[in-house]
Amino acid sequence: MRVLRTLVEARAWRRAAGATVGFVPTMGYLHEGHLELVRRARAENDAVIVSIFVNPTQFGPKDDFSRYPRDEARDLALLEVEGVAAVFMPTVEEMYPEGFATAVDVSGGLTSVLEGAARPGHFRGMATVVAKLLSIAGAERAYFGRKDAQQLAVVRRMASDLNLAVEIVPCDTVREPDGLAMSSRNTYLTSEERRAAPALYAGLRQALALFEGGERDPAVLREAVRARVVVEPAFALEYVSVADPETLAELDWVKGAALVSVAARLGRTRLIDNVTLGERG
Fold first, then answer.
1. Local structure of 77: helix, strand or coil
2. 2-171 has which CATH code?
3. What is the rounded CA–CA span in Å between residue 77 and residue 98?
4. What pTM, to 2 d.p., does this model score?
5. Model confidence over 27-44: pLDDT tens digits?
């Protein structure tokens, strides 16, 4: 497995890599959710490249960039076992050299609501770094988890609008046995908070059960999520959304598919999760 630190090394590797390449962008501190993306990429491509880069431009002033978990040796060992061909691990200076002055801004409703409203500037930083990484990797396919549903929608829109020659492949959320969506930030939870955390997914499952029983009123679905989550007093609920999966516009009535998403704070940790009702792309 090659460890690539510079753009020159990454591009040279891509030229020699083979017919098809799958790309998995990460911020490191890998868990089973990341590894499932890697396995999907391996099954569908001749070679896989993974990036590990904690991107400072997508963290706000109150976010956790400095304490975001990092363990390079552990991550590389996990990826070696999975048969990854190359890992791109640039420095901040390599990605944002002196004089860097360009950003990718996906405007409109996709980035102004939900996580965009809670974390101003986040999607501008995310879209910029993902565009750069897609360009550097030169992959035919790039793999993203559905857990970050808004991120996935933004990346899909960006790739389409910019005519990027890459297929964005969505992959299902990987969960702990009790339903908590896997996330590197779960390591921040205290033991007591970890016991409470599955209430987030339990709330989403309440909405899913109501939908499968015929309920189509978003207000009823939102309230079902809220009521289940606030049973755990440690949660500070930020939003519950029932929206169009592509535009993220809030729905007055569920006629087709709908994305039910939730964000809440549990102590110092901010958790997000979602489920899709009906058909999805």
1. helix
2. 3.40.50.620
3. 32
4. 0.96
5. 999 999 999 999 999 999
